[in-house]
Specification:
The chain is mostly beta strands. The protein has two helices and ten strands. The protein has a single domain, classed as Porin (Beta Barrel).
Length: 235
């Protein structure tokens, strides 16, 4: 966690320096290039690369791919030059699946099942650079932010603390706040003088220590891929 915090601070300082240098080099830009508001809809797929996820899906059916679900986002692009800018945004994702014990069933031979849910909400900033002119153009960027997360299990569980191993209904929750880093690449296509469509891919790096009902279970990996499409209003 300390190493991730250091990386975020270093990247933030670098982004501010690049933006200032780029703005000074480019000078004034044309009207209509001041900024943009963007809305995006995508799909987020958790990576699940941590011991917690490995242990979790060794006990229960499925994988983190089953938590793939829709993501929503909104961004504000502040252009620092004709070809670059700072992208401030927020996004939300909530994925859920139903899992069952791999090695246990109830007295009637049916699966013992419960719901698993992962929620992520972030506030972020990135430095982006685009190629090309006013037509369709690719762009890339990198940045970081704050990520709020919640992991929930609710349903049927075996009470291994009771010698009779009864099946009980229970709910277990952990949540937290951590840093994130991400990289992005996309293509923007103009549709009208002030409107455009874009297609974008992002990869997020994030992790945090589990607490609350999952204290002692180690670190949860919150990284993953997001593929999205959306519209932008340029002004």
């Amino acid at each position: 966690m300390r190493h991730l915090t250091t990386r975020v601070l270093v990247i933030a300082a670098a982004l501010c320096g690049l933006a200032a240098a780029d703005a000074a080099a480019q000078g004034n830009w044309q009207p209509g290039d001041f900024g943009a508001v963007r809305l995006r809809l995508g799909v987020f797929t958790p990576q699940g690369s941590s011991e917690f996820w490995d242990d979790y899906f060794s006990d229960f059916t499925g994988s983190t791919d089953d938590l793939e679900d829709l993501s929503f986002g909104a961004d504000y692009l502040w252009r620092t030059s004709r070809s670059s800018g700072l992208l401030f945004g927020m996004s939300f994702y909530e994925g859920s699946t139903t899992v069952a014990y791999r090695d246990w069933v109830d007295a009637d031979g049916f699966d013992i099942r419960h719901a698993t849910e992962l929620s992520l909400t972030d506030l972020s900033a990135a430095y982006v650079v685009r190629a090309g002119g006013r037509g369709a153009h690719p762009y890339i960027g990198a940045g970081g932010g704050l990520l709020w997360w919640r992991f929930l299990e609710e349903g049927e569980f075996i009470d291994f603390g009771d010698p009779e191993l009864p099946i009980v209904w229970a709910s277990y929750l952990a949540d937290g706040l951590t840093w994130e880093l991400f990289a992005l690449a996309g293509l923007e296509v103009p549709l009208a003088p002030s409107w455009g469509a874009f297609f974008e891919g992002r990869y997020r790096w994030a992790e945090d220590d589990l607490g609350d009902d999952f204290a002692g279970f180690g670190t949860i990996d919150l990284s993953g891929w997001e593929l999205a499409a959306g519209f932008s209003w340029n002004f």
